[in-house]
Amino acid sequence: MTDITVPQLGESVSEATVGKWSFAAGDAVKKDDVLVELETDKVAVEVRAESDGVLSEITAKEGETVEIGAKLGVLSSGGGEAKPANKDEPKSEAKAELKPESEAKAEAKPAAPAPEKKAETASGDDIADAAIPEMGESVTEGTVGAWMVDIGEAVKKDQPLVEIETDKVAVEVPSPADGVVEERLAAEGDVVKPGDVIARIRMGVAKTEPKEAPKPAAKPAESKPADGVKAMPSAARIAEEKGVDLSKVEGTGKDGRVTKGDALKAAESFRDAPAAEAKPAAPSAPRADDAREERVRMTRLRQTIARRLKEAQNTAAMLTTFNEADMSAIMAARKTHQDAFVDKHGVKLGFMSFFVKACVAALKEIPAVNAEIDGEDIVYKNFYDIGVAVGTDKGLVVPVLRDCDGKSLAQIEKDIIDLGKRARDGKLSIEDMQGATFTISNGGVYGSLLSTPILNAPQSGILGMHKIQERPVAVDGQVVVRPMMYLALSYDHRIVDGKEAVTFLVRVKECLEDPQRLLFEI
Description:
This protein is an alpha+beta fold and 522 residues long. Helices cover 28% and strands 26% of the residues. β4 and β5 (44-48) form a beta hairpin.
């Protein structure tokens, strides 16, 4: 027997919340199967089986908070052959019952022969299972969308069979081989998980005769909305709940299909728009209390973020100092060299790479800002791993740019683009988000003019960038208009003195206003 325990969760992460178990007690599992997800304030961490065996006991229930090394369950070796066989058979039978109503009616007359035929084909050696692929970090389920193929239809390997809609993107399930669609095991609107078998493909030449009857049955499912509007199941549900007319919503999905995001956006705009037609009805029909507010439970990730940010505020002696930088020199350099930079490196020259290099130069001069407190010790870092705050639908994440002192502006820009894309797609790993020595947060992309960023514990400094705005300033005794940006440095006053913090921010300002200082390392 082997105890299943909470693994190391990354620097400064000491606890996690138990998410959804993929198996029940008594289920057989194979080596590297994902047993359960643990949710931290940064990412969802998968706990995998170390060997083949049986999940004999689950000691940590969903929603419990556990610390590193805590016991989650027990994995017994061997004896796991009978369980999966029994587990799979009912699963396929149960899934078969989930067929769309239209298919069930079409098969109602030849009821006896049809199930026998399915049972025979499902057990053949020439059947390939089409399973739900992994849909990204922390995405554990999706909704079956529009089927692109009918039962009995010939398909090619890697041809899309169906769309699975998640809260982030629509994922297509490809055919695993050339052949004919033998069976569809889920209907539109069903909730499925990664690894679930959603269709079976008979490899080789099609036997079209037995499959002709069910073929037209799938077509009514395609034209599900009476008005002919193509919409994902979740979008249809939202439209029904919010009273949105889908015929007036422009779909951004495949083939113009209305997605969940389109429906939510439309619901928001309809709610905010002045309701001219509703005005006469307003006096006679008082609004219900439940329409005036909506209570939504915070996700475990949001709860953890809230708790850790408050802990950082309570623990550190946090103070913020401000300055401003004239961005004229950087803007002129970008305008002059942008085309050549893109031609050579394949990425645009942005502002963030200049800020990263300017911060590295300032950190080398003021090492206390690159340090952290550990008990009664101060740990000075002689490397420069810069965290870059990225806003996502799930919350704020801070992926890390490694060894920035040895990277060019082009490489930093490439790394930022890659990390930002993976953050928004939910594909960051725990390694991508741990070990930063300093953080940069760019609130200017959202229009922020001035703010006081909060520390990312256990770091002792964070730089806040803001919106570039033209303002009148005095230069050589004359008032001129320049593109200016306010800079904010929040720091831990326990180890960073005011003089050091101000000097750090002045060095960043000097490097931004005269980028040649970075070239000459002065």
